[in-house]
Design goal:
The complex is a heterodimer.
Chain A: E1 7-10, H1 17-27, E2 31-34, H2 40-49, H3 56-70, E3 75-80, H4 85-98, E4 104-109, H5 115-125, H6 131-158, H7 167-179, H8 185-200, E5 211-217, H9 219-223, H10 231-237, E6 240-244, H11 248-254, H12 258-263, H13 277-289, E7 294-300, H14 304-320, E8 324-329, H15 335-357
Parallel strand pairs in A: 1-2, 1-3, 3-4, 5-6, 5-7, 7-8
Chain B: E1 2-5, H1 11-24, E2 28-31, H2 37-45, H3 53-65, E3 71-73, E4 76-79, H4 88-91, H5 93-100, E5 106-107, E6 110-112, H6 119-129, H7 134-164, E7 169-173, H8 176-179, H9 186-194, E8 198-201, H10 207-218, H11 225-237, E9 243-249, H12 253-265, E10 271-276, H13 282-301
The chains are: A alpha/beta, B alpha/beta.
């Protein structure tokens, strides 16, 4: 029997497929493909074959892999690291095996994510990958991640006020399209700068004091628009300046700065409470100091660190008189339900502001 | 000075160590009673509804102790060796209790290997907070530790004896705080005792041996301390029992991964997976236990075939 050609695939995580494309295409000797865009079917497939109690990203990423496997992918890439994510690989591999897909699972990191470990994982698959080659790809990856997070951050703060609808999104997508083929870090940087200027010159009519809503919580649901029912899009359409805490750049920093986060939490926490939950608390505390109107805390169903964080956030909310809304997303969440809650939260903030002004 | 100890979560891992330590330094303690309906109710009322049932029970025990002692003992134990950590619910307990009952007086200390905070240092810290000298605390800790270790060794030996004896046996795969809790596992173990089926526990195993067995079967180190120990227990004991019972509380992070893996990997033994939450449904559990017992008994009589 002929050995099937190896086709590698990473799960869908918002726009970060660009990063996966750059890293995998240039570092592996396999063909790579993007998993099919997430739909209701992805969620259904994932949920059907996953254990009930598992956190939602397991189900959605499993759905991604099953759909990709149907189209010929047979090497699946997961980041690994801690919390439950560190064990996704063994269970997902077992489930895919039981479903009859002949596949391989690559875990990029183990427990503590380091660049050294990333190189070791990739070069164990592609022995031809030299340290120099990897370093130059990794430089591009870091640059692109930081640039795209900065651009997206700027976009979120201003997209609600653009004069020509669609300008920001178009500019951002054009950036992603162009930077994908950057050959070295200098090129990536100049592309980034070009689009930064372009984005800053987009005409907006931002009012003096727009409604500002912060988004904090578990990183996957924060950055994956399909998984959070396009929350940001709804808020932008309703004239809200969005301040989002949660991006790949921020998470990479957050993992190593838990002690600082504990110190910047206004005395509400003494210790690391797991995953990036301390970052959520520290960011919420900072947003309140900077004058936010309301904060939305999002998490996938059964995410234990964020459930611990909720108890603490409730106290912060009460003491600071800033409204918080807690949203849990699972494979059954409907967009209409989410939008109704967003609408109520938005209305409440507008009314609160009005009564405070009088 | 009276120290309150909640009979929940970590208590079940460290019962002998803690109680002997406080006895050795001559400090009075009060341990909350076995979980009852009142404790469950208070725990549920004071928790976020999405929290796991075991942590709700913990909050109920803390609530019980609030007006019965001067300080409540809630240490923060993250990891005791590299890549041996507890679940985030457990290492977030200190902050959870502090934010649930504002103003509560806690006796706290941190065990965190990555920060070079060893267990012995934590006990010195606790001793210092109670006015004991470093030498006194260290002595008390060492004695308590050796008592606790010998108690565990005896339990492991007794279990091995039980496994070598005749008769039907089941193996319980569940976190100690569920297995031995009056409102979670006790009902299940009582059922087997009443039906003359011997009960073995996957957590009664030497920790190092368990880690090695776990790494062997999964090809990578399992960094959740309790899960690693339980999986090692399953690997070691499963050939000697007739069936395996998985008990989880809803929603459990580590169990959501490993219970599913075990069900998929173990094909040679009947497995019953029970998930317990605050909805009291003992009739449903009884029915499932009865039918599971029927299966293992039928299998025994037919010599392994069904």
């Amino acid at each position: 029997m002929a050995i099937a050609e190896k086709v590698a695939c990473a799960p869908q995580i918002g726009d970060y497929h660009i990063i996966a494309d750059i890293l995998l295409q240039r570092c592996l000797n396999y063909k790579t493909m993007r998993c099919p865009p997430m739909t209701k079917r992805t969620l259904e497939l994932g949920a059907r074959h996953s254990p009930d109690m598992i956190c939602t990203p397991f189900k959605t990423t499993l759905g991604n892999f099953i759909e990709a496997a149907e189209q010929g992918a047979n090497v699946f890439v997961m980041p690994g690291v801690g919390c439950r994510l560190g064990f996704y690989d063994i269970l997902q591999k077992q489930i895919l095996d039981d479903l009859g897909y002949d596949c391989e699972m690559i875990t990029l990191f183990e427990y503590i994510p380091t660049v050294k470990r990333l190189y070791a994982s990739l070069s164990s698959i592609n022995p031809d990958l030299t340290q120099e080659e990897f370093d130059s790809v990794f430089e591009i990856v870091v640059k692109v991640t930081v640039d795209m997070d900065n651009l997206a951050d700027f976009m979120r703060r201003n997209i609600a006020f653009e004069v020509n609808k669609g300008d920001f999104e178009q500019c951002y997508q054009a950036y992603l399209q162009e930077v994908k083929s950057a050959q070295d870090v200098t090129e990536a940087e100049s592309i980034g700068e070009k689009y930064k200027e372009k984005m800053e010159s987009i005409i907006t009519n931002k009012p003096g004091k727009p409604v500002k809503i912060g988004i904090i919580g578990e990183i996957y649901v924060v950055v994956e628009p399909f998984s959070n029912c396009n929350m940001e899009k709804w808020l932008a359409e309703h004239g809200v300046e969005i301040i989002r805490s949660g991006s790949l750049t921020q998470m990479a920093v957050a993992i190593f700065t838990v002690d600082e986060q504990v110190q910047n939490s206004g005395g509400y926490v003494d210790y690391n409470i797991g995953s990036t939950a301390n970052d959520a608390i520290a960011q919420a505390y900072q947003m309140i100091q900077d004058g936010i109107d309301g904060i939305i805390h999002v998490k996938p169903a059964s995410c234990s660190p964020e459930i611990t964080a909720m108890t603490i956030l409730q106290n912060i909310s009460q003491d600071s008189n800033v409204p918080f809304m807690y949203m849990t997303f699972d494979t059954e969440t409907s967009e209409a339900g989410v939008h109704t809650r967003l609408e109520a939260f938005h209305d409440m903030i507008v009314m609160k502001r009005r009564s405070e002004n009088e | 000075m009276k120290i309150g100890i909640p009979r929940a979560l970590q208590y079940y891992f460290y019962e002998d160590l803690w109680l002997n330590f406080f006895k050795n330094i001559d400090v009075e303690t009060i341990v909350s009673p076995a979980t009852n309906k009142e404790i469950v109710k208070n725990g549920v009322n004071n928790s976020i509804d999405e929290a796991c049932f075991s942590s709700k029970i913990f909050i109920g025990h803390v609530e019980y102790l609030l007006d019965k002692c001067d300080m409540i003992f809630v240490p923060r134990i993250e990891n005791s060796a590299i890549r041996e950590e507890y679940c985030t619910r457990i290492f977030g307990l200190c902050d959870l209790v502090k934010n649930t009952f504002q103003g509560v007086k806690l006796l706290q200390a941190e065990v965190n290997y990555l920060y070079r905070k060893k267990e012995s240092f934590a006990f010195i810290e606790i001793g210092a907070a109670l006015g004991k000298s470093k030498e006194e605390s260290l002595e008390a800790y060492k004695n308590a530790l050796s008592t606790a270790e010998s108690i565990k060794e005896i339990k492991i030996l007794q279990q091995e004896e039980l496994l070598n004896s005749d008769g039907a046996k089941v193996l319980i795969f569940s976190h100690a705080y569920n297995t031995y809790d009056a409102c979670i596992g006790k009902e299940i173990t009582d059922f087997f005792a009443a039906n003359n089926i011997k009960v073995a526990y996957a957590d009664l195993i030497n920790e190092k041996e368990a880690q090695a067995l776990t790494k062997e079967s999964y090809g990578k180190r399992v960094y959740w301390k309790v899960s690693a120990q339980l999986i090692g227990g399953i690997e070691k004991y499963r050939s000697q029992v007739d069936g395996i019972i998985l008990i989880s509380t809803f929603p459990c992070g580590p169990d959501s991964i490993f219970n599913e893996l075990l069900i998929r990997l173990i094909k040679d033994k009947p497995i019953l997976s029970l998930i317990i939450d605050e909805q009291d449904a003992s009739a449903g559990i009884q029915t499932r236990l009865e039918s599971f017992t029927d299966i293992i008994m039928a299998k025994r009589q037919s010599g392994g075939e069904l």
